[in-house]
Amino acid sequence: MSSAGAVHRLVVFGDACGSGELGLEAKKRLRAAMYEAFAEAYASVGIEPGRVHQEDRGDGILAALQPEVPPTLMVGRWVDTLYESLRELNDGSAQRLRLRVGMNAGLVLDDGKGLVGRAVDLACRLCDSAAAKRVMTNAADADLLIVVSDWLYANVVAEGGRYVEPGHYRQAPVKNKETDEAAWFLIPRRPEPPLDGPAGHQTGGGPKGDGPPPPSPPEANPAAGDEPPTKLTKPTKPAKQYNAQGDMQIFEGNKIHGGFTGIRKDRPGTGGDAA
Question: Could you tell me the pTM of the whole model?
Answer without folding.
Answer: 0.71
